[in-house]
Model the fold of this input.
Amino acid sequence: MKNEKFDRLLSAIRNEHVDDKVVAHAGQRVWNSIAGGAATADLSTRTLRSCADFQALIPGYLGKQLPPARTLLFDDHVHACVACRHALETAREGEPQKVWRLETKRSGSRAWWAMGAAAVAAVTFAVLAFTNELLPGQHSVRAAVQTVEGSLYAVSGAKMRVVPAGYEIRNGDEIRTAKGSTAVVRLLDGSLVEMGERSDVSISRAWKGVTIHLDGGQVIVQAAKQRSGRLYVATDDGLVSVKGTIFSVNHGTKGSRVAVIEGVVRVEFGENTADLRVGDEATSGGVSKVPIQNEIAWSRNAAKYLALLGDFAVLQKQFAAIPGPGLRYNSDLLPYVPDHTVVYAAIPNLANTLGEASRLFEERLQQSPELRNWWRQQQKGNGPKLEDVLNGVKTFSSYLGEEIVFAVAKDGTTYTAPVVLAKVRRQGLEAFLQKESRHLSSNPSQVALQTVHEPWAVIPEAGRPLLVYVSNDLLIASPDVAELQHVVRRVQQGGGSPSAETPFYQQIVRSYQQGAEWLFCVDMEQIVAHHVQDGSNSHPLPPGMRDVRYLTMEHRDVSGKTESHATLTFASERQGVAAWLAAPASMGSLEFVTPDTSMVTSAVIKNPRSIMEEMFKMIGSGDAAFTQHIAEFETKTGVNVLNDITAPLGGEVTMAFDGPMLPTPRWKLIFEVYDPATLQSTIAKLVDSYNREADQKGRPLQLTQRQVGSRTYFVITSSNPSNPNAPNAEVDYTFVDSYLIAAPDMATISRAIQTRETGYTLAHSAGFQALLPSDGYTNFSAIFYHNIGPVVGPLAEQLKASGALTQQQRQSVDALTANSAPGLIYAYGEPDRIVVASNTGFMGFDLGTLLTMGDNGPFLPQMFLGNTLSHPAPQTQ
Done:
């Protein structure tokens, strides 16, 4: 009976005629309501749970004001939700969507065909949507709680209830861990999501894949290989996407941090997109990077992750000990590169090196269960296997000479297609390439390979195939017929070109004369030429970069030591931004840093006041109101930026993390200060000014003094009146001789002062001294030192004491501690150049790159091109 009444009610609603004007007015009211709400709330960061939440984003979406990550989520939802799609169409048109009706007078075959096609499409769409459980109202299961330690809550509005292991999480359900609690959630595809304490998660599925919505807290995701689409982790400020890997996402009030434990992860923060590999991190907002061990310390699987990192550390050290291919002091391929070459990269043939690396990896697999389990996970699926890729690379490389050259030329304002050259040292290469070409013909997603004998008779196939010309002793490859013909003609003429007389060519020759293993040279002068010539360019070069000439990156192994150098050369003495880094000078601030520091960055810079003046000039050139804003700030605070903030500062700054990062990182910030009285007065004025504004915000600052012996400490604290029980944020600082030392507590400052007085400092430690280069400099312009040993050690000891480690895991963790060697990157500011160098690294790519090669596809020549493009020369470690 109830169903009959409900059917009659629906029928009455369907048959009721509503005047078009009424519909139009209603649509306008809805639009005004949505637009008005958008004007009064920050809709780009609110939690998205219902259709109302998504429809509130429509004005920002149409105005292209949403962040890319939020735009993607909006597109996915609208694609699946009819109601939201209609709301979007209504807002876009500014009026109700028109309903088109077929006229019975013109009901010919075309109309029936169109109706049939539309019906088929609608049925297909409905079947796919229903099968994938994407229709509105389908509240399908997306995951299940696998384990809970502590308390896990299901949240629905203001209601919360405790849920046990086995609880099924449906589309859009929100779950939250309590204080001191963790949980593991298993998605339908087998992916595991480990939730830290106070973490808030929901899971949804759209056409592009499954999305884990992290509204707060931290998760570690072990993503299973995705058969279709991707797995996403979405926060208010970013989006992480993967096909299958292990990574951590930490989202809080200040921003987010993504850290990769294994594999490759794509991260989008606003307009910035980056691909991260093992050990890499990306952050947003005011969040800084921390050692990855710190990110995973809370995890119940921390022992497994540390053991895996320990195995990687052992392999990294073993790989670094593999003898390099040797230095080359000239190149037989250089004379054949195209005219006007602006990018030149030369890499050694790594056939023997990769063979030895593969052997070491197999040995480690037999020794480590953790590495073996990880490796089995990587071999799942239908994609290419790393072992097959490496064997193919070794086979391909065995045909080639000792060097492979990659070159890109510039023709006017455009860049030509790349050209790859290599010597052929044994027969059979062409047959091998033809075999690979036939193998790839069944995989249309890969770029095609076409071997050619007569370049002038080539008819390119669709999709810009890679054209490969093989003569008796030379391989030439390019996706562009004209470039291939140009180089082949030069070879047939015996080499030599007008470019051989150019300064850039001579720069490359000089690099070879010093001994080259990996070499990457860029003619920056030609690349930035159009910026200099076109004064109306919307992205002008920073001051001082107009006369940049060359970027040269070199890597070599000499007497068992690794050397990596990157040099940016200028046509004249450095000016503007390029001159901010000062010439090498003594760094007295390093005397406050202990030998057990985990990370320190120190630099000597140009006069801070001059730098600030140049920054004001740059900003003011693009913002006509900038000068007025500065004047308003100075009037409000009573502080002159140039005279009161920058003038008292010297030219030296150091940031350091001393000792363990757990439970609380002990950071130190050290500035050289020439006028402490003026700077202290300025700080007091800024605190007073902030408090006048903070009366409305509710978080005032308090500046106090504390006398400890003969030393005066200044303490800035921030309290939260709305929550008196919350701990206060605190920054302490004091002046010592010509330095200001700031830290989170006075004890850290006292230890820094004691370090200086006793002489037990990083700069004088044996570990630091062993990393110093042998050259003619007595000082540096900047350094970056890192040592994860002090971070890993305490964490490893905690895990050992807990008894949570197996014997093999203990050995792997011990290996991580033993092989966590420190590293040093240093810079010199010379009159006409900046040199950045390091004595650590492995042939220009790290272990993470090697272990994820299998994801790049089986096409060997393309992989060589890909490695050349993405790793043209060793990155300075």
